[in-house]
């Protein structure tokens, strides 16, 4: 079965860029029309910049999770208190909206 062809076209967003639409992403199909006049040196430099940017985003996401961990735990506990009945079954065990409000 051959992969679905990709469509690559300029973005309509104000900042420009390109949009790639395909069921199975293939980098070569995106890079060919977008970077057909880009030198190999520039492509390598761009790849390094992209890797650095992505590593930075991972670090930011990790820090965001650390900064908001208490909130995540509180949300989990609230959901558990709504869904876990005293007998250990998972279902909504509260009889009114006011009970939910009191938990939150």
TrEMBL record:
GO terms for biological process: exocytosis; Golgi to plasma membrane transport; protein transport. One of its GO terms (cellular component) is exocyst. Residues 23-83 form the Exocyst complex component EXOC2/Sec5 N-terminal domain. InterPro entries: EXOC2/Sec5, EXOC2/Sec5_N_dom. Keywords: Exocytosis, Protein transport, Transport. It comes from the Eukaryota. Component of the exocyst complex. Belongs to the SEC5 family. PANTHER family: EXOCYST COMPLEX COMPONENT 2, EXOCYST COMPLEX COMPONENT SEC5. Component of the exocyst complex involved in the docking of exocytic vesicles with fusion sites on the plasma membrane. This is Exocyst complex component SEC5. It comes from Dipteronia dyeriana.
